[in-house]
Amino acid sequence: MIATTRRAALLSAFATVGAGALVATPRSARAAETGQAAAAIDLYAQQVMAAFPDEPGLGICVVEDGQITLAKGYGVKRMGGTDRVTDSTLFGVASNTKAFTAAALAMLVEAGKVEWDAPVTRYLPSFEMSDPVVTKLMTVRDLLCHRSGLTLGAGDLMIWPNPTHSRADIVAGMKHLPLGEGFRTGYAYDNVLYVVAGEVIAAVTGKPWEDFIQTRILDPLGMSDSVPLPSMIGDRSRAEPHARMGPPVRGLGPQTVLPFDGSFGAAGAAGGLNTSARDIGKWLQVQLGLGATPGGLKLWTEASSREMWKPHTITAWTDGPTADNPVRPTMQAYGLGWFIQDHRGERLLSHTGGLAGFISYTGLLPGRKSGIMVMTNAEEAPLFRALRYGGPDRLQGRADFDWIGSSKRVQATTDAKTIKDAAEAVTPKGGGVKPSLPLAAYVGTYRDPWYGTITVSVVKKGLKIAFDKTPALRGTLETFDGDTFRTRFEDRSQEDAFMVFEVKAGVVVGATMRAVSPLADFSYDYQDLRLTKV
User: What's the predicted TM-score (pTM) here?
Assistant: First the structure.
């Protein structure tokens, strides 16, 4: 969901669909081999941890031929500590939650309470997009497959970091979010429409999204460690989040412990789930079982599974494999809560997830009834990349490519570019000239129609900025280059922004914003703000 800094390229990286041919290994052969992939992945996880010693911990689950063959923790919950990650340690899995929301809607479709192709307004009469034609055409299916016309991460400042917007606020804000391209004409990943999908579930069931997920999915599957929202963790064992906080930007520098974000309730349907290695295997099993558990419990039908796994939106296309990524497919698509592509000749269903200090990956090879879940408690892109690609390889019984070495090379190139780009970003293009007006002229309240208000005030001899619905985004506002200022938020784990004031006839009338760091998470969608001074 969130794609911060070093992990950004991995989480938003080409997710491209080969709906590819399903290559199935004969069941007799699979049965004889069951457990071999788990042993290989267990060994490989230890090798990866040794190769990237700054990674605090991991949780990994493997399913082979429908059986859980590995559920294990690696490393520690907190850097420098001795409390080990176990199979019951919780990790935030962010956008891997989206498949749960899709499955919940599939169950309601089967119950006759929802139709995939019914307009959203049938269930949420007040729902509006900025274009009334899109409002009329937007269906429940459209909420899940990233083809609405919204830009990447549009509206995410209503869900991140720790704002006070309610779910109703988010739904109401949709009508003010500008569309970047035509409806159903392209792909742009979003989170806010999954919040809307969660509200559809609430509207037709009379219970909040988290209650439905708990009672209709987690409880029946016996996922007793897991919770739909981080605020529900209580005294359960959980991993602590970590990230590199610079210098010069987040994603570089030494590893540090981050404060745990226990809120995120409004955006639960987009990324609220926290789960453990031993629990998530039960979810992998019901997915690979086409809606049925090994014990025969059926949560949804095979037809619904195939609907969720059907390509809906082409996400990207490439020239195919490269020297450093021999599994890169020529095309990838998004279904309903899942990316679909080819992995060395087999259909792969996958998703990534990212929150502050956590990255996760789900990969399913339906032809083998096998899958893997990787959960980490740090934003370590090279380690994550090595496991994300090396894990499915080992599910296929192969280990003939050095993903560790490849990931180190790719990260070294990325880091060098980041250092260069970060230096350029903080170099004033206009030479660092003074503002055109006295500082007092910039003081005031600025309103964006979907986010709300931002207040600029005087503090001593400078300015202070506060995103009024986001306590984490408060700090000083410094002169930078003419009428462009930059923030320095008190919470240094947050991404700073440039604020470009619009001056007409000697009067400040509004402002636009953009992130300072070239690696800023797309969920810091400052660029979508259109601020008017009120």
Answer: 0.94
